[in-house]
Write a structure and sequence with these properties.
With 107 residues, this protein is mostly helical. The chain contains 4 helices and 3 strands. A 3-stranded antiparallel beta sheet has the order 1-3-2.
Length: 107
């Protein structure tokens, strides 16, 4: 009989957290140069803090989504930018639909 074990690890990232470029690079296990390419493509947007870049917690999720898109679907950076935009639009529409359905049920 073969037993397979999986080890999962993760970190909870708060929206209010801020990361430097080096910290974001380390958190996502990517090169800082690749993150700069994401900034140039408009995929992630740094905040200016004392003449250095800072990134918020949701940026970690965006970077990891781009990693998965490139790894699993071989999507290039412009394609990843478009995919993220479409995913955000879908989430916004689902949220609006849920609000509409809730108000319909309660009226």
């Amino acid at each position: 009989m073969t037993v397979t074990s999986y080890v999962f690890s993760g970190h909870v990232v708060e929206e209010e957290m801020e990361f430097s470029l080096a910290e974001l690079s380390q958190a996502c296990c990517v090169d800082a140069e690749w993150l700069v390419a994401l900034v140039e493509e408009g995929i992630i947007e740094p905040l200016e803090r004392e003449s250095r870049w800072c990134f918020t917690g949701p940026t970690v999720q965006r970077v990891r989504t781009v990693q998965r898109l490139q790894r699993d679907l071989r999507v290039n950076l412009p394609g990843a930018a478009l995919t993220l935009e479409l995913l955000e639009e879908i989430n916004a529409l689902r949220s609006q639909l849920a609000k509409f359905e809730f108000s319909e049920r309660n009226s």
